[in-house]
Amino acid sequence: MLECRNCGAGAPVDEHFCPQCSRILALGRHGDYFAFLGLPRKLLIDPQDLEQRLRELSRKFHPDYFYNASAAERLASLERSSYLNDAYRALKNPVSRIEHLLAIEGLPSARSEEGTAKVPPSLLEEVFALNEELDEIRELRESGEDSEKLLARLANARKPIDAKRDEHERQLQELSARWDSHLASDVAGEHAPPAEKRATLDALRERLLERNYINNLLATIEREGSGLQAMSPER
Amino acid sequence: MSKVVGIDLGTTNSLVAYADDGRPVVVRDDNADALVPSVVSVGEDGTIYVGREAQRRLLTAPSRSVYSVKRFMGRGIEDVEHDAALLPFWVSGDRGGVVRIGIADREFTPPEISAFILRELKHRAEEHFRERGDFDFEVDRAVITVPAYFNDAQRTATRDAGRLAGLEVLRIINEPTAASLAYGLDKRNRGTIAVYDLGGGTFDISILKVEDGVFQVLSTNGDTHLGGDDIDRLLVERVLAEIAGPKEQDSTTVEAIRRAVIQAKWDLSDIEETEIRIEPSPTAHAGYRRAITRADFEDIIRPLVERTLEPCRQALADAALQPSDIDEVVLVGGSTRIPLVRRVVEELFGRKPHSDLNPDEVVALGAAVQADILVSGRREMLLLDVTPLSLGIETMGGVVSKIILRNSTIPASGREMFTTGVDSQTGVDVHVLQGERELAADCRSLAHLHLGGIPPMPAGLPRIEVRFQIDANGILSVAARELRTSIEQTIEVKPSYGLTDQEVERMLIESFEHAEADFEARLLIDARNEAEAVIAATEKVLRRPDFAALAAEQLEAGERERIDTALADLKAVIAGSDRAVIQEKTRALNHATQHLAEVTMNRTVREALAGRNVKDV
């Protein structure tokens, strides 16, 4: 519940303007980007609809339109516009969208440090193979092996990791769709079992942790590759 | 109601525009010239000259004249040493602090110099409104444009300059975005636009999406140290190398060369071959002439022009677009008149760029539109711009932790938690940076914050939330509070390359003290200008081939003598600083020539009519 600082009327937390005096409301401590944009907590969203909402709400809150307003209204406009832009940015990207959902559903962050430190079990095999290959490539590089050949080997070593990432993207899509179907049944009144919802969220979080790990691996390969390229004779 | 204007504060030229019933108009002088050269010169008597007059003084008093001051805005001495080598004025300053510009015995900061230019523009606009007959012609509010790639310090310096010029800066907006607003006026269409803006000192590329009247910037990139100035410098260096000799390096010669190469550069936008020509000067140099073809010129400047390509590619990548996704390319800035620049842009985007609007004026027009939106409450159009550079803070080991990423739509906010390292610690220092690099040493230092007043607690227990807010100007503000006790913290902000509020206040007071003197100086200049005009008109009549006949026929005895005396009297006082005397002698000359003017006019009219039929008249 928000309180209008102009007329003192109460307003629901997701309202932007006072229902009584129609002045812009101070932001308060809002935490839900979906609700702020008037969206259900669905993961598969239409990017054009999202943009449309950004434009519509910008036209309501933007500081340009509060130039002659009171200091309190100007501040409210600045805060709401900033929050709107933050919300748009977070929801536009599918991964940060999932991260935000996990946060508002009360799960620990998938970005935390300990998440990326240990190898996710499902990746053990690939990581082991990759590290062996990278060690060998480094050794050969030291002994003056032709960098073209090594680059080719590196490209080969990358393939299983790329395949894993594609697989992950697919799983994230699938889990996102599953989450949305839970929501759809909630709306239809056939409430999805909370345990199932929770299981889907946990699975999403697992995938995100693995994804971070895969991206780190790919970054390592990139670094190795540019090191080799710098050594290529034609450079 | 006092007036609002839009100002393009450029490296080479500045302009002012306003909106007349929603339609933007550029303010021009009596010669229909809208450009005010961004040159400031200080006379021996302390008079400040701005614009064309200051530009003329670059040749006669180079060490008292400053140009391209925009390059110094929000910068430190270590950034500009390279530029300073060929400049006629001297720059100094402490490392990691604001640049100082020295003229004779006075020292100015770049915002103070820019404020002189802004004051001139304000004055121009006021004259225009006054002549138009507006009751309240005072200009007290403005939207000022900056390169999109300007960092926080450069934006803040621009805002400070506005304050020093007595303007309330309603908004700082980005030049390419302003240009798109001017272009978007007539066409209410939608699409993806690339604005390529190569000006006197800076390069910007912005990619925008226009839909429902909302101009949403998707990405921006650029180089705040790349423009026509750099082209000029390359050419000047070439010429200097050819005529080198210790006495040729003096600043008068460098200025003469600079003027000559600029003329050649302009020529080569229209013709295939021209000449760099410097007239011999008795004091300094022996003169110089050299033919230059467009192909030679393009070979010299190609590396500079190609430096614009990487920012373009980066902006496209950040917007997740291919060159073929761009529906329209708009050219802004005087340097886009160069054919090579047009070719390079056309090749990159695979389409002919637009340049229907004057590339020198389009930014000021857009600024006027934005000013109008702000004060009139018009809602047809809305700009959603982005912050060009990531904002971060220094963490352990000198690494930067990013808080607001580049190309985030503004206003934008970010927060970061801090705590204490030792028991009962009551203050925390935070180093705020801007840039894309990993290490603090490679990013731009914006400010050092000191959070004070933390209640004494065991180490690690306080939870201090610092909130970073980038407003619609792209300018940062910071607030902090301790979450356990909810005590608002005090924050001291020490800007790295900017003026503190106290410094701006002090300069403002000084400028009020000078305001009277400045006002006097302006009246003096106006009086001299009027005197010059009367002298020129008189001499023109005296030079007429038929003057002898006219005098014999029409002038009274002693009239010619009275005119000659009045003319000599006025010429004797015009260079002096006594305004009343100049005005008195001007009136005297006007009076002495009144009869002459009448007979000359009658004669001219008779001659004009002589060859015509009555019905043509």
Describe this structure in words.
The complex is a heterodimer of chains A (235) and B (617). By secondary structure, chain A is mostly helical. Helices cover 66% and strands 2% of the residues of chain A. In chain A, a hairpin with a 6-residue loop joins strand 1 and strand 2 (10-11). In chain A, helix 2 runs antiparallel to helix 3, helix 4 runs antiparallel to helix 8 (194-231) and helix 6 (124-142) packs antiparallel against helix 7 (147-187). In chain B, strands 1, 2, 3, 4, 11 and 12 form a six-stranded mixed beta sheet that branches. In chain B, strands 18-13-14-15-19 form a five-stranded mixed beta sheet, sandwiched between helices. A five-stranded antiparallel beta sheet of chain B has the order 21-20-23-24-28, with no helix packed on it. The longest helix of chain B is centred in the C-terminal third of the chain and has 42 residues, at 501-542.
Relative helix content of chain B? 25-40%
Averaged pLDDT of chain B, please? 85
pLDDT averaged over residues of chain A: 83
- Give the structural class of chain B: alpha+beta
Strand order in space, largest sheet of chain A: 1-2
What share of residues are in beta strands of chain B? 25-35%
The count of helical stretches of chain B stands at 16
- Overall geometric form of chain B: globular
End-to-end Cα distance of chain A, whole Å, is 64 Å
Number of helices of chain A: 8
Largest interface by residue count?
A: A-B, 20 and 24 residues
Broad shape of chain A? elongated
Measured distance between first and last alpha carbons of chain B = 44 Å
